[in-house]
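Moderator note: this is an archived Q&A kept for reference. The question asked for a predicted structure of one protein chain; the sequence and the answer are reproduced below.
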Amino acid sequence: MSDEVPERPPGSGLVQALRVPRNGAVGVAVGVAIAVSAYLARVFELLGPFAGTREYPGVGPEGWFLILAFVLATSTALLVTSVLTVIEAARLARRL
């Protein structure tokens, strides 16, 4: 019996095959673009004034919309990256 741990193949091959870095960059770009456009539309009232009168404690409406824009950007980036990676995995599976 040997106490040596067998070497594992590098995991970067799968990451590169599924083009995860490119998908991540596209996801971040789409997420940021959507979040910036939503933030600008809300803060500068490009779609008209905000319908309700609300209290925004602490940071004011711009701060709360900025926090929401960050959440929108990150969730959209993750969604787009996941969808693109699944599509790439399906293409690779069909090719094999």
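Archived answer notes: The CA atoms of residues 34 and 73 lie 7 Å apart.
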